[in-house]
Amino acid sequence: xRADKALFDAKEQGRNRTCxxxxxxxxxxxxxxxxxxxxxxxxxxxxxxxxxxIVFKLSGFIEEMKAKLIKVDEGELRLEVGSKGFFxxxxxxxxxxxxxxxxxxxxxEAVDNRRTKRVQIDLTIKPMxxxxxxxxxxxxxxxxxxxxxxxxxx
Length: 154
Fold this sequence. Notes:
It is a single chain. It contains four helices and five strands; from the N terminus they run ααβαββββα. It has 154 residues and is of the alpha+beta class. The chain has a five-stranded antiparallel sheet, covered by helices on one side. Strand 2 and strand 3 (76-81) form a beta hairpin. Helix 3 (51-65) crosses helix 4 (133-151). The longest helix has 19 residues, at 133-151. The chain is flat and about 60 Å long. The two termini are 38 Å apart.
């Protein structure tokens, strides 16, 4: 994929040109594309508690939202919230029929000048159906607000 993009870069610059792409350039371009995708919601929040308590707080969110824990790695969780409609590709009117995938990336713990433990948490939310952009943004906003409340976040 990187090689293909480098080839197109060289073609755009004219004859007898060579171009290279580093993995970082490729990753930066992909993250920039995700930021412009109306169906990818990205948010960073700062939790005002230690990383050891985040697990307990997230378990409350998972229980309240009836979320499915899909994948757990060190510093990363993938959840599915809501269920697909009868035909599997719709986006219902109620929140429980508006399925989304949530990637939660937990950063390193830091202590601020008031000796409060803080952890940056990056969220990426994607729909699992075909919502309108407004419906999806509204769903993301409610989920982020709920996560902020559970995680005691700024």
